[in-house]
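Lab meeting, item 3. Inverse folding demo.
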């Protein structure tokens, strides 16, 4: 047996790549057993229909399908939302957040079945290989890691299709499916095809979930979101699970074309890539949480939360979910989130979401102090002394420059 490997657990999706990986592993790691692991993180339900049968037909000895949806939203997405993380200012980290929970569950299956190794279908060009393997290392460093895309000589979609055809392994993939997509409960991404040239505008085929904003309803829709300790807990007055909240907001947001971005991002491995991302419910959630924060966080706390979000965006994107740094950042965000409780009314219209009403249990906003009308709580003459002290260093510097000039 190659490298003494007797049993491999493969992160299996049922797509073209992983369908080819199963027979490839059996051929190149002679005598090994391949166990397929499928993570249900909220992808299209049709992708899961018959996935176990498909894995067995490809040569897997077993197939485990694990429902991770609620855990994914509650334990991965919600914590990141509290930090306000946006990678490079716009990406809500849909793929990045899903990889550690998938890899963690894969490791758990590997340990359960007594596997020697784990395998994934991430390419040698992307970020996912880092995310998967960093998780494997953090949780079970004794497991060997197999990354077929870094080993085999199959270099194209055509080659993969031919490989399966020769072995009489059925697949629904075809040359016409030119886009690479990743879907979970939080988002769907689209890469490849016309998007490989940055001078090509995205066409209708590049968008899957959301209505084109120009075709969205001509009347705005209001949605009320309840927040408790930095977590969305209700939609339009109805308390729901984290997954329930997200699914409800996904439907509303998609209807109004909310949550579309078309970006070129810097991959961890050094190259740039272009993708169209759709995160309708997540965009609404982010707007709701930031709306409450505006009321309850003082200036320095808000600044600190923004710094946490920036740092967290890189930690999550780079696959360091199980690193001490992520836990430290999360602890700080959890502390700030304790006062982020309230209710927000958001207006959805033609691709936009805007918080138009907001209230919070511990709001620091005071109409008495903020009014432009007459008030009896703020003595404006006090501002002069504050400004004099605030600008004291500038005054001293200017006086010294004047003295030098004499």
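The presenter then showed the designed sequence:
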């Amino acid at each position: 047996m190659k490298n003494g490997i007797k049993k491999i657990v493969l992160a299996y999706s049922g797509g073209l790549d992983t369908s080819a990986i199963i027979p490839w592993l059996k051929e190149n790691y002679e005598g090994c057993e391949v166990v397929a692991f499928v993570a249900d993180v909220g992808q299209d339900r049709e992708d899961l229909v018959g996935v176990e049968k498909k894995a067995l037909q490809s040569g897997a000895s077993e197939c485990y399908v694990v429902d991770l949806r609620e855990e994914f939203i509650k334990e991965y997405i919600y914590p990141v939302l509290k930090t306000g993380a946006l990678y490079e200012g716009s990406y809500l980290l849909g793929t990045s957040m899903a990889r550690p929970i998938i890899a963690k569950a894969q490791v758990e299956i590997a340990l359960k079945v007594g596997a020697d190794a784990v395998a994934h279908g991430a390419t040698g060009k992307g970020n996912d290989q880092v995310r998967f393997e960093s998780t494997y290392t953090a949780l079970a460093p004794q497991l060997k890691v197999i990354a077929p895309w870094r080993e085999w000589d199959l270099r194209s979609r055509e080659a993969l299709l031919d490989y399966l055809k020769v072995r009489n392994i059925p697949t629904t993939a075809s040359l016409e499916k030119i886009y690479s997509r990743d879907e979970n409960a939080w988002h769907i991404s689209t890469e490849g095809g016309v998007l490989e040239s940055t001078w090509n505008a995205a066409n209708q085929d590049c968008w899957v979930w959301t209505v084109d904003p120009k075709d969205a309803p001509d009347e705005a829709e209001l949605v009320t979101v309840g927040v408790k300790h930095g977590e969305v807990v209700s939609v339009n007055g109805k308390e729901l699970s984290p997954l329930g909240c997200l699914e409800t907001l996904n439907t509303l947001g998609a209807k109004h074309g909310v949550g579309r971005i078309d970006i070129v991002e810097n991959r961890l491995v050094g190259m740039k890539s272009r993708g169209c991302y759709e995160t309708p419910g997540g965009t609404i959630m982010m707007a709701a949480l930031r709306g409450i924060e505006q009321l309850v966080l003082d200036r320095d706390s808000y600044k600190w939360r923004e710094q946490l979000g920036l740092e967290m965006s890189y930690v999550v994107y780079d696959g360091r979910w199980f690193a001490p740094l992520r836990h430290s950042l999360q602890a700080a965000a959890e502390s700030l989130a304790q006062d982020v409780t309230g209710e927000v009314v958001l207006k959805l219209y033609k691709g936009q979401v805007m918080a138009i009403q907001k209230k919070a249990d511990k709001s620091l906003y005071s109409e008495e102090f903020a009014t432009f009308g007459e008030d009896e709580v703020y003595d404006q003459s006090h501002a002069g002394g504050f400004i004099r002290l605030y600008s004291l260093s500038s005054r001293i510097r200017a006086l010294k420059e004047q003295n030098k000039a004499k």
